[in-house]
Design a protein that fits this description.
about 130 residues, 2 domains, four-stranded mixed beta sheet, 2,3-Dihydroxybiphenyl 1,2-Dioxygenase, domain 1, alpha/beta
Length: about 130
């Protein structure tokens, strides 16, 4: 089995796709007016319009309703990314080091979804990610 992507359902495709293009620096591939993908090494972030929900089952997903998922992006320089984004996003918390060895900051996208950018900083964390 291969983990293929994470998909966010949104009511405002242009706003959310533009936000993730700004955060990641990667241009979206628009596969349809109601569906786009941001393809990055190791993961794909798919963004679907609320109109696509009916293709599965009406009511099976809802925009702006997530409070249990955090999208995480590993970066090479957490300090640089923090300076670049801190005034452009709604911060949840400033830079801090987590008990598992990652330095991170968290913010929300326009739909309220939580995002963490992180960089392994302890020797143990660096070793863990070197093998992935």
């Amino acid at each position: 089995m291969k983990f293929a992507s994470t998909r966010i359902i949104t009511a405002d495709m242009k706003q959310l796709v533009g936000f993730y293009e700004m955060v990641t620096g990667v241009g979206a591939e628009w596969l349809a007016p109601v569906f786009a993908e941001i393809v990055m090494p190791g993961a794909v972030l798919a963004i679907g319009s609320a109109d696509t929900v009916a293709l599965w089952k009406e009511g099976s997903a809802e925009p702006c309703a997530n409070r249990s998922l955090v999208l995480e992006f590993q970066v090479d320089d957490i300090e640089t990314e923090y300076v670049r984004l801190k005034d452009k996003v709604t911060l949840v918390h400033d830079l801090k080091t987590m008990p598992w060895g990652n330095k991170t900051f968290q913010f929300r996208d326009p739909d309220g979804n939580a995002i963490s950018l992180y960089m392994p900083i302890t020797d143990e964390a660096k070793q863990r990610f070197a093998s992935r």
